[in-house]
Amino acid sequence: MSEARHRLLSHANSLGAALLLAVATLLFTSVPSARAGEITVIDGIPHVRNEKPPGRQVTMTPREMWRRGGDDDDIFFGNIARIDHDDAGNFYILDRQQCEVTVLTAEGEFVRTLGRRGEGPGELYRPADFYLRRGGGVGMMQQFPGKVVLVDGEGVPAGGFTVSSGDGPATGFMALVDSRSRGDHVVIAGIDMAFEGGVTKQTYFLSAVDDAGVRQVTYLSKQNTINFADFVGSEETMDFIWWGQRWALAPGGHVVANMDRNQYRIQEFDASGELLRVVERAYESWERSDDELSEARQVLRAAVSGYPAPPTSLEIEETDPDISAIYARDDGSFWVRTSRGDRPEGGGVLTVLDAFDVDGHLTHEIAVRMQGNVGVDALYVCGDRILQVTNALGAFVAGHGGRADVDETEEEEKEKLEVVCYEVGGSR
Length: 428
Hints:
Layout: H1 3-6, E1 38-42, E2 45-50, E3 57-60, E4 63-69, E5 80-85, E6 91-95, E7 100-104, E8 110-114, E9 116-117, E10 123-124, E11 127-132, E12 138-142, E13 147-151, E14 157-161, E15 174-182, E16 185-196, E17 199-209, E18 215-227, E19 232-234, E20 247-249, E21 255-257, E22 265-269, E23 275-281, H2 290-303, E24 313-315, E25 323-328, E26 334-338, E27 349-356, E28 362-369, E29 378-382, E30 385-389, H3 392-398, H4 408-415, E31 418-423
Parallel strand pairs: 2-23, 3-28, 9-10, 19-24
Antiparallel strand pairs: 1-2, 4-31, 5-6, 6-7, 7-8, 11-12, 12-13, 13-14, 15-16, 16-17, 17-18, 20-21, 21-22, 22-23, 25-26, 26-27, 27-28, 29-30, 30-31
Helix pairs in contact: 3-4
């Protein structure tokens, strides 16, 4: 499997997939560093401009604890969309193929499954993502037609809802893509669609919803129009915060998000939707090689495979997105994964993260030392654990129509989908 292909998993989490990298939980000691960001107020909003990477880098080495799935386990994972954890340390693993959430203890022991395939209570097709409900259980999102299916902590159906703007009844022409929760605060990303002939006018949105699914606050939105008579699959026009993991829900219901794939620019909103600050960093975009361009084309083709008509052409950007993922931490700080950090120079380093403090100042870098590849495996931060999904790219592509150029060796590899749990190890 080519190195170019390995690097593309973070960009494969499109309309139906929530993807892909979350990395290790930082060091349990403070890191002294200068707060070098320059603050400029523009239209009343502080812009924190960090001009260059800091001189301080710390290293993290996670330790493997257990594995589930794979050839020798009685648990089977087909296509994992996302992993989360609750306050008790239990892990929740959404499988798109199985249409269920598998619950494991902190030690990796099986507890139960939540949800199932079907049209009845507690059932759905093609789940895109899920969120944890206060008091236990999950809200599972069906991609299209978009709806949320609620299941309690014992697996008992607990109702559900469709997402609406509050201006009238939901039309049903909506796709749901991503979701996160903190306590009672639930934020959902999706696509609101209006069809007219062979043209669909789409509104991409990132919104907080109430218990009935009514959108209360919209943090970010974007317009896109698709003419299916001449459908061009475009990385740029179809781009939004769900490509990779370019948004996170932080403490207090704050939303931290990167809207523009070609800019290292992060907006932070409070729960009510007020823009608090903009965080930037001087950055040179990564230019893709010919192999990387080819791989990006394959990923985009898989991503648009669920549309009503196949694209007449695909338009690929010359560069990777500057920001691959944003990870909010419980103390209000956050980490950023980048296209260049995903290509570290040091041997044994999986990725290098930019670490920002609560005010948006770039304080240090984190070199994550562990086996794997950020483009082939998915990683999720769950408290003081890292959960790695091996060969997640093959499962994603297979779940979106497969590829004609995948050889038999790769077919065998993609079947070995495992979840590997690591404890955050020593750092220096």
